[in-house]
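Consider the tokenized backbone below.
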């Protein structure tokens, strides 16, 4: 009997990867949705006996979608597939009725094992071919970069959530392919903040190099220091620097490690540098990336709403590095069925 499978993800590249990861022997009819609203419409049409649901999406995210499925008692089995791997994200979705939770990037063998666990498929592992509806879909470079950043963002957020024992709100990464002199326009939201402090750390591998910046709004330092539970006897300036370095080390380290896993290579990292304290962001950027022409800027705005803390992780890479990364990611997705 054919199973109707719905893949709901705002990334075309992620939908493509998910479709490839489905076991060859599973008799399925696959359809796609780009956000939760489309997914609900597909469920109503009977196209989702099983749904693979992303969390971070526009229009209607995974949490909102799962809540509607629960409230309306809609007939679908939901498996969450997300880059947000925080324990609280998993707990929250399972409490709303999701069947299980799988981390991105998808592991075909783990997927097959999970499907067998719930009696959905009992055959051999191994991803399948692209279905007819996805074979002609053009691969969008920015979409590939965004999905790569989404996975890295989630792993970095999870590490920080463990340290602070809080839930980190994760956005959809903002990815721009721009000229260096256009960078200030691409990060206008960050620039609206009066004064910031930032840490920069370079990373490099064969043919690939970039800069990672963690940028704090200075007004958030007091709350962050309290959350980190530093001794109150220390000088305020020293505590702020310590908080800046600790959070930056965690975010950049986890993010770069996630990039390494996705690209199957190792990055070396330079020593972190405090670029500025209580200064304008424009001053920080002018001295740091002016040597590049075309760049890809990935902006990730983390927030801890219950503590009123907001900070940004900014990845800056020259176009030449992104071209290599694109080829590696696409090549890897093409061999998932092995």
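A designed sequence for it:
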């Amino acid at each position: 009997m054919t199973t109707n499978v719905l893949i709901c993800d705002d990334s075309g590249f992620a939908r493509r990867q998910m479709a490839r990861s489905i076991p060859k022997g599973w008799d399925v009819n696959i359809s796609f949705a780009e956000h939760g609203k489309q997914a609900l419409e597909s469920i109503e049409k009977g196209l989702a006996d099983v749904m693979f649901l992303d969390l971070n999406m526009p229009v209607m995210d995974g949490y909102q979608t799962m809540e509607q499925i629960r409230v309306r008692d809609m007939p679908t089995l939901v498996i969450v597939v997300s880059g947000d791997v925080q324990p609280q994200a998993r707990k929250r979705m399972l409490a709303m009725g999701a069947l299980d939770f799988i981390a991105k990037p998808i592991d075909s063998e783990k997927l097959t094992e999970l499907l067998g666990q719930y009696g959905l498929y009992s055959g051999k592992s191994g991803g399948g071919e692209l279905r007819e509806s996805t074979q002609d879909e053009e691969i969008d470079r920015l979409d590939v970069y965004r999905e790569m950043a989404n996975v890295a963002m989630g792993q970095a957020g999870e590490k920080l959530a463990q340290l602070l024992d809080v839930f980190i709100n994760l956005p959809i990464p903002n990815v721009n392919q721009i000229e260096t002199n256009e960078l200030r326009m691409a990060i206008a939201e960050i620039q609206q903040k009066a004064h910031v402090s930032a840490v920069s750390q370079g990373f490099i591998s064969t043919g690939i190099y970039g800069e990672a910046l963690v940028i704090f709004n200075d007004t958030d330092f007091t709350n962050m220091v309290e959350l980190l539970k530093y001794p109150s006897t220390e000088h305020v300036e020293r505590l702020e620097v310590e908080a800046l370095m600790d959070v930056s080390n965690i975010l950049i380290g986890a993010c770069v490690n996630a990039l390494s896993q996705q690209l199957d290579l190792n990055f070396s990292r330079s020593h972190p540098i405090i670029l500025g304290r209580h200064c304008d962001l424009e001053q920080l950027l002018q001295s740091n990336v002016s040597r590049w022409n075309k760049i890809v800027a990935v902006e990730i705005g983390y927030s801890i709403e219950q503590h009123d803390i907001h900070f940004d992780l900014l990845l800056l890479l020259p176009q030449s590095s992104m071209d290599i990364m694109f080829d590696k990611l696409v090549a890897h997705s093409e061999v998932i069925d092995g």
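The radius of gyration is 21 Å.
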